[in-house]
Design brief:
The complex is a heterodimer of chains A (473) and B (305).
Chain A lengths: L1 E11 L3 H12 L4 E5 L7 H4 L2 H19 L14 H4 L3 H18 L3 E4 L1 E6 L2 E5 L5 E11 L3 E3 L12 E3 L12 E5 L3 H12 L3 E6 L10 H13 L3 E4 L3 E6 L5 E5 L4 E4 L1 E4 L3 E3 L32 E3 L11 H15 L13 E3 L5 E5 L2 H7 L4 E6 L4 H6 L5 E6 L6 E7 L3 H13 L4 H6 L9 H23 L1
Parallel strand pairs in A: 1-2, 1-6, 2-3, 6-17, 8-15, 9-10, 9-15, 10-11
Antiparallel strand pairs in A: 4-5, 5-6, 7-16, 12-13, 13-14, 18-19, 19-22, 20-21, 21-22
Chain B lengths: L6 H4 L21 H12 L9 H10 L6 H9 L2 H11 L13 H8 L1 H17 L6 H25 L3 H10 L3 H16 L5 H23 L3 H9 L10 H18 L6 H5 L2 H5 L4 H8 L2 H10 L3
Classes of the chains: A alpha/beta (473), B mainly alpha (305).
C-alpha cells in the first residue's frame, strides 16, 4: 500500500460529468485528481457510447446522401460489408477526442490516475491500479461520476454474440440482415435509425405505446414514418416474455400476446443502470434508494454533504452528455460557493436519430397542461427551400407560444441539423425573445434556420385569427 | 510446454509478418537441424497440411452472412466421419442440451450454426494438421492447447464485450504452426539421422511456429483477423486492424498454458504479463477468467484427439 495523497477534490469517473467537475474545481484553484478505470479519458461516451455510435451514424448518413445522388452514381452497398469498414474513422475520432480531453485536463492542472476507486470512509478513496496496487487518497470533496451500463434482465440473456447490448453491438463482425431492438428510448431509436439506413431490416419492440414517449408526439411520428419507409417496423405496447437463440440462425423474441419475432441479431436497449457496485458507498455512510439510485438534491449533493454525484449514475433519463457536463460543473460550483446559474433548466434534448430530433422548453402537450390554448406554429421542411435543395424535406419545426401568441415557450424540431438548429431556440428562450423577434429577423437564404421564421409567421396568422374572433365575439 | 515469450527476441521487435528469418541462437552455433528448418521455411518448402475441403467450406460459411443452417448440415453430411464426430461432441457434457442429440439436423438446430461451425471446423482440422505418428503425446498437448485457447478467447471476448464471434477461431488457430513445425522437425531429423530431443523440439517450436503458422494461414486462406492473431498474438502492439483479437488471443494462450500445466506455469506467472493491463483487466477480472477452468475443461474433453 502506497502512502496516502491529499487532494481538495477527488473525482471518480472521467466521462462528461467527471471531466467538467474536475476542470471546474481546478479552475477554482483546487488540487484535483480524476480517477478513471478505463485506460483512456472520456468514459463510455467515448469508447462505447456517443462517439462510436455517432461515427457509424455518420457513415449511414453519407450512404444515404450517396443514395440520393443515385442518378449520378450507380451503386449499391454490399450486404457483407464488415463493421470495421463502416467504422473505419472511429480510431481517428477517438484518438483526436482523447488528445483534446487530455490536453484540457493538463492545461487546467488536473491530476489523472488510471485505476478503480472505492470509498474507504467519507473522506478516503482507495485507488486500485490495474496491476492490483492500492493507494489511499484523501479529499475534502468527492464527486462520483461513474456513469452507467446497459441494464440486464434475467429473461433476456445477453451473450454479446447473438443477443447484444449497446456496449457490444458495434463489435459485430458483419452487418446483420435483420435486427430486433428491444426498447424505445434514445439508444434504441438512434441505433434503429442507423441500421435501417444501412439496409438492415429493423424491428423495434417496446412496452410503451410509442417510441421516445417523453418527446412531442407529432415530432416522433415523423421519425417513425422515416424508419417505416426504410422497411423498419414498430411493435409498440408489447411486452417481451422470453428471448432465445433458436439454435440455427435466429434470435426469437416471444411477446406476451403469443407472437414470435425472429431476427439474425438482437439489441437489448431497455435502459441503463448506474455503476455503483464497486464504490463501496456504505463505507462513506451512503445508501441507494429502492430504485438503486443514489439520492441527491438539485446540486447533486448526497446525504453526506461533501460527497456529490453527477451524470448518468443519477439514473435520470434521457442520459445526455450535455446534461452530465452541466451536472459536474454545477456540483463543484455549488460546493465551492461559486455562482451556479440556471442553465440547467434549459438543457436541450438532442437525439441522433435519422432524421435528428431536438427539443427545448415546453412541447405542445406540456404547454397545454399549463396554459389555456397555447399557439403552435409549424414549419414543415417541405416549405423550406434548403430542404428542397438538399433533398432533406422530411422535417418539421414547431414553435410553442403562450395563448397570446407572443411569448416563446418551447421549440421542437425533427429533421436534418435539428440538433444544431435547436440552439437558436435555446438562446431565444434564455433571452425571453418574443415570437415577433423571429419574424423581424432576416435569415440567410436558403437555410434550415428559416424554418423559425416560417413557424413564427404561422403563429402570427393564428394570433390574428384569434384576435379577430375575440373582436367578433 | 510452449513459450510464446521467446518470439520477441527472435524478431528483434520487428513485425513477425515482415521479419527476415534469423536463427534463434548464434548463427555460428546453430544446429544443422535448425539451419535446415530455416532453409525450408525460407524456400517455402514446408509440407503444409491440406485444409480439408469441408473445413474450407465451413470457414467460408462462418464469414458469410448469407450462410444458412441447412447448407451447413448438408456440408457436414458430406463427410461421414466428421458427421459422426460432430454428433458425439454435441452429446458431450460441454455442449449437451436438454435432450440427447440424435441427428445432424438436430445437432445444428440445438446447438446453433456458429457453434456447429466451430465444432465441425475444429474436428476437421484436427485430422489434417494434428497428426504426427510417433509423437502422440506432443500432438495431443498441442491440440488441447489450441482448444483451450479457443475456449478462453471466447470468454475473454465476452467479458470485454468485444468480437465474441471471431474470438474462438483466433484462439484455436493462433498456434497452428506448431504441429506443422513438429511434423517438419520429425522429418528433418530423420533425414539428418539425428535424435530430436525434447529441449531442442520445444526451442524450435517456440522459435518458428509463427512464421510457419503464417504460411499455413496463407495456404488455407484464413480470414484476416485470424491471420493477424497468428502473426501478432505475441507482439500485439504491431497489429494493424485486429489488435483487440491479437490481445485476446495472447491472453487466451497464457490462460490455456496455465490450464494445461498449472504447476509449471502457475497462476502467479500467468498474471505477470502486461497483457492484463493492456486489456485493462483488473485482478478481480482475472479471477473471474480463471474461474472458467471447468468450462474450458469440458470443451477440451469434448473433442479428444
Amino acid at each position: 500500500m502506497m502512502p496516502a495523497s491529499a487532494y481538495d477534490i477527488v473525482v471518480v469517473g472521467s466521462g462528461p460529468a467527471g471531466q467538467k467537475a474536475a476542470i471546474q474545481g481546478a479552475k477554482a484553484g483546487k488540487k484535483v485528481v480524476l480517477i478513471e478505470q478505463e485506460p483512456g479519458i472520456g468514459g463510455n461516451c467515448v469508447y462505447r457510447g456517443t462517439i462510436p455510435s455517432k461515427t457509424l451514424r455518420e457513415t449511414a448518413v453519407q450512404f444515404e446522401r450517396l443514395k440520393r445522388s443515385n442518378e449520378v452514381f450507380e451503386g449499391k452497398m454490399r450486404l457483407d460489408v464488415p463493421m470495421s469498414v463502416l467504422l473505419h474513422r472511429l480510431d481517428e475520432v477517438v484518438k483526436a477526442h482523447e488528445c483534446y480531453m487530455a490536453g484540457q485536463l493538463t492545461r487546467n492542472g488536473v491530476t489523472y490516475r488510471h485505476g478503480r476507486a472505492r470509498l474507504l470512509s467519507p473522506h478516503e478513496v482507495q485507488l486500485e491500479t490495474v496491476d492490483g496496487a492500492c493507494q489511499t487518497l484523501t479529499a475534502d470533496m468527492i464527486v462520483l461520476a461513474t456513469g452507467s451500463r446497459p441494464s440486464s434482465i434475467p429473461q433476456i440473456p445477453v451473450d454479446h454474440e447473438h443477443v447484444l447490448d449497446s456496449d457490444s453491438i458495434l463489435s459485430m463482425i458483419y452487418l446483420p440482415r435483420s435486427l430486433t431492438i428491444l426498447g424505445g428510448g434514445v439508444i434504441a431509436c438512434e441505433y434503429a435509425a442507423t441500421f435501417a439506413l444501412l439496409g438492415v431490416e429493423v424491428t423495434i419492440i417496446d412496452r410503451a405505446k410509442r417510441p421516445l414517449p417523453f418527446m412531442d408526439q407529432e415530432i416522433v411520428a415523423v421519425f417513425q414514418r422515416s424508419i417505416e419507409r426504410q422497411g423498419g417496423r414498430f411493435y409498440s405496447g408489447h411486452t417481451v416474455t422470453e428471448v432465445s437463440w433458436d439454435g440455427v440462425s435466429s434470435v426469437v423474441a416471444r411477446l406476451a400476446n403469443g407472437m414470435a419475432v425472429k431476427s439474425e441479431k438482437m439489441l437489448v436497449a431497455l435502459g441503463r443502470q448506474p455503476n455503483v457496485e464497486e464504490l463501496n458507498l456504505e463505507a462513506a455512510g451512503l445508501s441507494l434508494d429502492e430504485k438503486g439510485h443514489l439520492p441527491v438534491n438539485e446540486y447533486g449533493q448526497t446525504a453526506v454533504p461533501h460527497i456529490f454525484a453527477a451524470g448518468d449514475m443519477l439514473g435520470r433519463p434521457p442520459a445526455l452528455a450535455s446534461q452530465a457536463m452541466e451536472d459536474g460543473r454545477r456540483a463543484v460550483s455549488h460546493a465551492l460557493g461559486l455562482p451556479v446559474g440556471d442553465s440547467a433548466n434549459q438543457v436541450p434534448v438532442g437525439i441522433y436519430t435519422i432524421p435528428e430530433i431536438a427539443s427545448i422548453g415546453l412541447d405542445e402537450e406540456q404547454a397545454a397542461d399549463r396554459y389555456r390554448g397555447p399557439i403552435v406554429g409549424r414549419a414543415p421542411f417541405t416549405e423550406i427551400a434548403k430542404g428542397q435543395i438538399t433533398g432533406a424535406c422530411e422535417g418539421l419545426l414547431k414553435l410553442v407560444a403562450d395563448p397570446s401568441g407572443e411569448r416563446l415557450l418551447g421549440v421542437q424540431i425533427v429533421g436534418e441539423h435539428a440538433t444544431e438548429l435547436i440552439h437558436l431556440g435555446q438562446m431565444a428562450l434564455q433571452d425571453g425573445a418574443t415570437i415577433d423577434r423571429f419574424i423581424d429577423t432576416i435569415f440567410s437564404f436558403p437555410t434550415f434556420a428559416e424554418a423559425y421564421r416560417v413557424a413564427a409567421l404561422d403563429i402570427l396568422g393564428q394570433r390574428r385569427k384569434r384576435q379577430d374572433q375575440a373582436q367578433a365575439a | 510446454m510452449y513459450n510464446d515469450d521467446n518470439l520477441a527476441t527472435l524478431t528483434c521487435g520487428v513485425s513477425p509478418m515482415s521479419a527476415e528469418l534469423v536463427p534463434m541462437s548464434d548463427p555460428a552455433s546453430t544446429s544443422p537441424l535448425e539451419q535446415l528448418l530455416i532453409e525450408r521455411i525460407r524456400k517455402g518448402a514446408i509440407e503444409l497440411p491440406l485444409l480439408p475441403q469441408v473445413a474450407s467450406r465451413i470457414l467460408a460459411m462462418v464469414y458469410d452472412p448469407d450462410a444458412e443452417a441447412a447448407k451447413l448440415a448438408a456440408l457436414i453430411h458430406q463427410d461421414q466421419a466428421l458427421a459422426a464426430h460432430v454428433i458425439r461432441i454435441a452429446n458431450s457434457p460441454a455442449y449437451m442440451t436438454r435432450n440427447p442429440v440424435v441427428s445432424l439436423q438436430h445437432a445444428v438446430s440445438m446447438l446453433g450454426m456458429n457453434l456447429m461451425s466451430e465444432l465441425a471446423f475444429s474436428a476437421s482440422i484436427k485430422g489434417s494438421a494434428f497428426k504426427v505418428p510417433g509423437w502422440d503425446g506432443e500432438v495431443k498437448s498441442l491440440w488441447h492447447y489450441s482448444l483451450a485457447s479457443g475456449a478462453y478467447a471466447k470468454e475473454i471476448a465476452r467479458m470485454r464485450r468485444f468480437n465474441v464471434e471471431s474470438a474462438y477461431l483466433c484462439g484455436l488457430l493462433h498456434g497452428i504452426g506448431r504441429p506443422v513445425v513438429l511434423q517438419t522437425l520429425v522429418a528433418l531429423s530423420k533425414e539428418l539421422g539425428t535424435v530430436l530431443t525434447q529441449d531442442v523440439l520445444h526451442q524450435l517450436l517456440d522459435g518458428y511456429y509463427i512464421q510457419v503458422g503464417l504460411m499455413v494461414a496463407d495456404d488455407w486462406g484464413l480470414p484476416p483477423p485470424v491471420v493477424e492473431s497468428i502473426g501478432f498474438h505475441v507482439d500485439y502492439h504491431y497489429a494493424k486492424t485486429a489488435k483487440q483479437e491479437c490481445m485476446t488471443t495472447c491472453l487466451a494462450g497464457r490462460l490455456a498454458k496455465h490450464f494445461l500445466d498449472s504447476e509449471g506455469f502457475d497462476e502467479a506467472t500467468v498474471r505477470e504479463h502486461p497483457i492484463f493491463a493492456d486489456l485493462n483487466l483488473y485482478p478481480k477480472d482475472i479471477d473471474a477468467l480463471l474461474a472458467h477452468k471447468d468450462k474450458v475443461q469440458a470443451v477440451v474433453e469434448a473433442m479428444p484427439l
